[in-house]
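tmp note - Branched-chain amino acid ABC transporter permease
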Amino acid sequence: MTELTHARSAAMPTAARLDLVPVAIFAVFAAAPFLASASGAEGYVLSLLTRVMIFGIAAMALDLILGYGALVSFGHAAFFGIGAYAVGILASHGVEDALVQVPVALAASAFFAAVTGAISLRTKGVYFIMITLAFAQMLYFLASSLAAYGGDDGLTLPARSLVAGSDFLENDYALYGATLACLLGAYILLRAVVASRFGRVLRGTKENITRMEAIGFQPFSFQLTAYVISGMIAGLAGCLLANQAEFVSPAFMTWQRSGELIFMVVLGGLGSLHGAIIGAAAFLLMEEFLPEILHAAGFFLNDDLRWRLTENWQMVFGPILILIVLFARGGIVGLLRRGHHD
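out:
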């Protein structure tokens, strides 16, 4: 009993320190605008971090079904596209208020998730992966064929969304603050979902779906509900991305984008909502700064080789991500946990 007590008391500070990680993440995001204004590069910093937070929202949405429900969706970028096109199409018809655009995007995302999820969840394993990919590709080709809304070339927004008639989102700081509020709201909501009875059943279906059926639960309804919630939150991220980029394109919903979201979740750590945010930040920041790092690191090469190394930075980026996933079991959050235990 004494040893057990000591083990528990030793584990409590570690758990407490790990609980501070989400607090630290949101504190950094909250402080970033002030640091950006002091640096003189606020436009660039705000744009980059706004994008990081948007993808953090989408990664958390995917983590709900992937990390907690073991549902590998290879078409989650479709909800990104639904949210973005809801903003773009409504704006092109003169409906520019986010108080209309966002509910429409959420409703469309929920409808698409309910219909496709009800079909996809009848399958398992690689079949589920392929059917979610097929539905996303179907939506991608549909968006590409919408000549009235730009087709393959995409659609440029006339302006960012209004909020109750106000154009305050035109200010980069305001958009940043709104995105941060959405990130925090999505995190709190998903954390409540995961900690609830619903979340415990969802995690149970991940561990042993047959056992959950044996004790009287119907995993299908829980998985479908989680899929709909996940799709709606990813749709919200799409609305924000359309406003951040002021542009909507079928490229938002390609299978490559879905793959990137999966990589972000795995990189940060499966089954960890703040890990999904960390994974999104690590992925996008590496993607942003790796070419410059390689250029600086190749000072000993001749100009031609240095240029080739910088131009083909993806050939270095890919192996780095693979090595992190292979040797950092549990992703970045797993590394943090092992560091605390050590």
